[in-house]
């Protein structure tokens, strides 16, 4: 017993020694850690600060004309926006804002628009900007057979210069988007009157310092520019590339410093250590167009069952990698005209099935396809879904749509055709339903697609006709001011959600993929991917 006690005392003594050693070791380790932390604290990594200088490389399709009014290349149009300005432009929320115009207004409620111009604007060669340049730009568009701005002047009846700072434009009627129509580039008469394809001279933030035909163009700061701030970037080299598919290769081989891409898998670029991607929403709207000559689609319950029976979020996640926004209406969520309402229709198989059951559909012959009898005529929920076979996303999405709709009682056949054949089928209305998309105008006028007057000779290929929708579209088109326009667009979207003229899917995203050497406030948007370029810079350490 005593011996046991002695062994315990010995063990206790050893434990005390061990504890002392542990405490000593802990103290030493803590001291070392503090020393290491102190060392870390002494290492300060400062963010690079904006500094003038440096150059960046941008790609463009070689334009058919350097004249922005006669050019049809999207990539060059974006770059020419750095050289030229318009009377007005769209901001990031697609609201019209003044640029070369000081102010504007319709005269005494008439269709005569009086535009006052800014009086301190110079062209990059030092000549003054005047109303004569605006008239010359309108004349150039009018005389052109294929200017992409031809639609901008289709409602302009006449125009004249009142004085150097005033131009009067008479429209065929007052309408909401009249000011939007003035968002075309203005070109200088004294440069282009003798050569419509002259080397660009503009009023924008950059000017052309060097041009090598078919090869490249160099831009530097326009010291006559009267806009916000001076850009940090000293030089932009624009490389002309004949094949648009070669842009990606040129970027990967570091021949270009940025890539404006609508490809939904742009993350493949940002996997590289020296690349960042800046996502933004576009006006590209995916939807399923329905042929209203098919009586089944005339039933609102069928259309509501379809939009709730398709798992749009899953399709977006699987095939667009999340790079789009699900929508119930063809008004982009970024737009000032969007009513801000959340999605009304989520994926609900049970709700879709209930809608069809309430509408009188049942599987009368156990073939898996629902049907009903209307006026002695049998109607089946069976149709062909048409889309173009060149588009991988649409081919995959069509299969998911087929699966979703067949689960609630539809019978779907997918037909893949070449784009030319798809367009022919749409033009001749020889289809049941088509998976397609629109690159919608920034004006956000939807009359072209949904007004009944556009069925015969317009673009209402679905043959959709609804008197209430017609009235709302007309009110939206002719709204006299922004407040009225906003109010009408709210009711238009409410009507769209209730009627579901087509099955809305998504507004797609795009991205400006940029080398990490370019820093600053990089904020692309649907109207202008280079809007914040004056805030970009290249740090001295990355030149």
Structure description:
This protein has 543 residues and is α+β, with helices and mostly antiparallel strands. The protein folds into 2 domains: 55-257 and 517-542, Periplasmic binding protein-like II (D-Maltodextrin-Binding Protein, domain 2, 3-Layer(aba) Sandwich), CATH 3.40.190.10; 282-509, Dipeptide-binding Protein, Domain 3 (Dipeptide-binding Protein, domain 3), CATH 3.10.105.10. It contains 15 helices and 21 strands. The strands form 6 sheets. Strands 11, 12, 13, 16, 17, 18 and 19 form a 7-stranded mixed sheet that branches. The longest helix is centred in the first third of the chain and has 41 residues, at 2-42. The chain is globular, with a radius of gyration of 31 Å.
Key terms:
single chain; 543 residues; alpha+beta; D-Maltodextrin-Binding Protein, domain 2; Dipeptide-binding Protein, domain 3; 2 domains; 7-stranded mixed β-sheet; 4-stranded mixed β-sheet; 15 helices; 21 strands; globular; disordered N terminus
């Amino acid at each position: 017993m005593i011996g046991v006690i002695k062994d315990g005392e010995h063990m206790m003594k050893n434990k005390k020694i061990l504890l002392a050693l542990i405490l000593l070791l802990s103290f030493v380790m803590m001291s070392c850690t503090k020393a290491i932390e102190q060392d870390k604290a002494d290492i300060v990594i400062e963010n690079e600060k904006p500094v003038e200088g440096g150059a960046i490389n941008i790609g463009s399709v070689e334009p058919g004309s350097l004249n922005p009014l006669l050019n049809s290349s999207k990539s060059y149009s974006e770059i020419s926006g750095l050289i030229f300005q318009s009377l007005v432009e769209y901001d990031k929320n697609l609201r019209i804002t003044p640029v070369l115009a000081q102010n504007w207004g319709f005269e005494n409620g008439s269709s005569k628009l009086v535009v006052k111009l800014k009086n301190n604007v110079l062209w990059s060669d030092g000549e003054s900007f005047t109303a004569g340049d605006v008239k010359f730009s309108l004349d150039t568009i009018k005389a052109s057979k294929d200017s992409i701005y031809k639609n901008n002047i289709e409602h302009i009846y006449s125009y004249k210069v009142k004085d150097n700072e005033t131009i009067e434009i008479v429209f065929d009627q007052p309408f909401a988007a009249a000011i939007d129509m003035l968002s075309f580039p203005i070109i200088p008469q004294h440069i282009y009157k003798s050569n419509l394809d002259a080397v660009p001279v503009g009023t924008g933030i950059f000017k052309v310092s060097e041009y090598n035909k078919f090869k490249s163009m160099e831009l530097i700061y326009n010291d006559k520019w009267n806009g916000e701030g001076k850009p940090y970037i000293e030089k932009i080299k624009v490389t002309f590339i004949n094949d648009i598919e070669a842009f990606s290769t040129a970027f990967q081989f570091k021949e270009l410093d940025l890539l404006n891409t609508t490809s939904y898998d742009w993350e493949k670029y940002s996997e590289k250590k020296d690349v960042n991607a800046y996502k933004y929403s576009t006006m590209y709207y995916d939807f399923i167009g329905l042929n209203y000559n098919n009586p089944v689609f005339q039933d609102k319950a069928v259309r509501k069952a379809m939009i709730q029976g398709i798992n749009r979020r899953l399709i977006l996640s699987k095939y667009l990698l999340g790079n789009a926004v699900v929508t119930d209406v063809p008004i982009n969520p970024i737009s000032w005209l969007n009513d801000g309402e959340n999605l009304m229709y989520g994926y609900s198989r049970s709700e879709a099935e209930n809608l069809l059951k309430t509408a009188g559909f049942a599987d009368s012959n156990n073939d898996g396809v629902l049907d009903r009898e209307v006026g002695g005529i049998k109607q089946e929920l069976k149709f062909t879904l048409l889309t173009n076979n060149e588009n991988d996303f649409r081919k995959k999405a069509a299969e998911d749509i087929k699966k979703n709709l067949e689960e609630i009682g539809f019978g779907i056949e997918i037909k893949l055709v070449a784009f030319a054949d798809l367009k022919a089928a749409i033009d001749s209305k020889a289809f049941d339903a088509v998976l397609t998309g629109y690159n919608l105008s920034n004006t956000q006028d939807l009359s072209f697609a949904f007004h009944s007057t556009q069925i015969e000779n317009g673009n209402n290929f679905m043959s959709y006709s609804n008197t209430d929708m017609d009235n709302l579209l007309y009110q939206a088109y002719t709204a006299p001011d922004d407040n009225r326009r906003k109010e009408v667009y709210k009711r238009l979207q409410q009507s769209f959600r209730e009627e579901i003229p087509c099955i809305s899917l998504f507004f797609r995203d795009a991205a400006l993929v940029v080398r990490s050497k370019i820093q600053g406030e990089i904020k692309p948007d649907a109207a202008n991917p280079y809007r914040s370029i004056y805030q970009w810079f290249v740090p001295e350490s990355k030149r």
